[in-house]
Amino acid sequence: MTTAVRSGLALRGVTLTYPDGESRLTALDEVELTVEPGEFAAIAGPSGSGKSSLLAVAATLQRPDRGEVLVDGVDAGALGDRERTALRRERLGIVFQQANLLASLTAVEQLLVLESVRGRRPAAARRRAEELLESVGLAGAKQRRRPHQLSGGERQRVNIARALFGSPSVLLVDEPTSALDHERGAQIVDLLAGVTRTHGTATVMVTHDREVLGRVDRVLEMHDGRLTAAVARP
Description:
The protein is of the alpha/beta class.
């Protein structure tokens, strides 16, 4: 019988393999991970170590071969496709490596574009979008700017606000500093740390950037699909 966590994110004995010629390549090898609400955890490791696979499984975008993925105590593997899509929409926020903003929309419109799916009233939705953008450092006229009028760091802030718009309990972040210089990258990670505390999300960030690891609560290392104990932070 599954013992569910009350909230947050838990991966239990997660194994994921891919076809590799006549054999299979193990991307995740019996991964165990629990992240509590209000905790900011970083997954570090080289390219090809399994970090992206871990994020895809945690986001319920990829079904593991074995193991459990629990979001707020809900076993994603026990859900059908429609239920899993609803789980992602209602409980998961994903900050992609590239902001992928729509060129024709303003910052506030980026948050509102899918709001009809959630059924929130338009006026209330706009107020929340404006408040979220202000909370990530984009106030006033910047909310009415289109992506080409925003800096790389500002586009990433829109990306973060968009991920928070559905009030997720779990926030998954993929290489948020990869397109930014050191100063702007550090600002974004500090922002994510603040967001985690303010919104009480269970936040997991995968990163190559070891210079930002001192800004998170916990660091885990991934090698060859295995998640190991915390490493020393710089």
